[in-house]
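Re: export button greyed out
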Amino acid sequence: MPTTPNAQNPSDDAGTPDTGTTGPAGGGTSLLTRKADKVDRLAELMGPRDNGTGGAGIWRTAFRRLRRSPMAISGAAIVAVFVLIALFAPLIAPYSATAQTWGGEVFPNQNIFVGPRAENWLGLDNLGRDQFSRMVIGARQTLLVGVVATLVGFGVGALIGGTAGAAATLGGRWGRTLDNAIMRVIDMMLALPTLLLAVTVAALIGASLTTVMLAVGIAQVPIFARLLRGAMIAQGNRDYVLAARALGVRTHRIALTHILPNSLGPVIVQSTLTLATAIIDAAALSYLGLGNPDPSFPEWGTMLADAQRFLSSAPQLAVYPALGIIVTALGFTLLGEAMREALDPKLRK
Amino acid sequence: MLRFIVRRTLQLIPTLGGLSILLFIWLQRLPGGPEYALLPDDATDAQRAQLRRSLGLDEPLTVQYVRFLRNILQGDLGTSLQTGRPVMEEFFTRFPATFELSVTAMLIAVAVGIPLGYLAARRRGGILDFSAVGGSLIGICTPVFFLAFILKVVFAERLGLFPSAFRLSPGLSRTDLSGFVILDGLRTGELDVVWDALMHLALPGLALASIPLAVIVRMTRASVLEVLDEDYVRTANAKGLHRRTVRGRHVLRNAMLPVVTAIGLLTGSLFAGAVLTESVFAFPGVGSFVYAATQTRDYPVLTGFILLIATMYVLINLLVDISYSLLDPRVRAQ
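Workaround output, generated via the alternate export path:
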């Protein structure tokens, strides 16, 4: 993932003022029609040019460190398996996740449950549905919740934080005032625990899957906003920004093609970590009754919340989705933490 | 110093003011508005209009906002839809329980987390380090309410080691002085009450401690690792200072700064976590009351809770800032 901004990085990293001709906005001139050419172009940008500009770039060395880190590899492996299951869920699931095919065999009020057996690998849920199929299809919903929530947090947060950061570094006195005003609001939002913020949003729009995604995403907005603003301000003092200004590059161009791409690193790392938080928070919201009200629609958070009722008699119903959530969240956390370590010079040893 | 504190305190006013505006807007935007939340579904339009008038909802927004703010400043957070009693009163009667629970959780987290994080850093790469880091990562990734349920089923229902619900065993007689069970018990010498209360606090306290514990372990570890690398630690060692002096005075003290900040900020999130934990253990605190409020859409309670937590959070931030400026003169100069 961190390789995307890398394409524009080498020249900036070396401190050469980039006048915009090779920046992402100038990509129109090299609009490639064929897929293969695109890949080649990317490889070219990432490859020898890095060495040509003297030493490996920060992304490249970070990636090399990542490949050696057992934390990153196990995290990436978990994430990869999870994403594959989610993508091919309908092909993997042996039965329907919603049909109560074995409804006649399960009687929750008499404490009769069906555990794992040859035809149902993880047994049946409280309504006689195949638990394995529900877990597989649920992975898809869970990934959807995590990704959409993160995108909401990332998108809105980056917009706010990017505006504040650009205003603070390039906007002069007026810009600093704007930055101050924006950050006051963001700090206010940061003052609330994310879960509470999510509950607030969820109470406002009513219980549904969309609610969970929006609520969890909005709760992440202040974190992303602060992060991107901080990174942009840190970049704003760098020499290449000064050089670009001296060359008379227009302000919005400096902000978008010079500072922004170089500030995205921490934000991307945070997105990985947010995916984990989003999945956990979504489960908590479901438990609070603010999640998807339709229990026939499998999603790990909802499944876990529903299964709490039978925890004493059929703990496995809660344990499967809980394990799914924990392992997946762990995967994203491991990957995110490893990325953060790889990018942070302080932690390089 | 005093100027710094005064300035920081004054800076709170716009923050809290802005928060009140956000909350006010939030209340305005609630689905259907309060006349739908307050009245039964089969109420007539005339009844709704009547209620709107009596609540002053037909007045201009600015007038409504000023009244909203005045009520808050007077400590009036409205009336709970569940119980019909003032929200403030409901919070106050339940606060001691949540306070005891949060303090228990924080004590567990600090007492276990700091030594564990410190030892993990000292033996970096060892088995202890690996399990501490791995354990805290798993802790962060485990939904609190699930952990609470597991603790309850295993240690209370299956093994019967701890009570599974409430704050005290039913039927236990005690002298109520302040609502703080443990404090009262210690003052009146009713040690059986103190013991009973502690047993009831153990499981929810442990569940609630999971996330702060995980965060503190990792913060301490990272911070100690950083300090161990500092030149002054090498100097102290080179001077031949006793190992214990170096570790205590040079390493731990300096490493604790970021951890103290984290502890302050975690306290705020404890109250949010209490909503999940208390509801699992039927613990009669603010959290389970708020949990019930989310189930019944008791908006005055939710608003009040958000306002209280936010205020607390902002105040804790202020305390952290002030304690930082006491410890580090550079902060004051800014």
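The first helix of chain B runs from residue 2 to 29. The button fix ships in the next patch.
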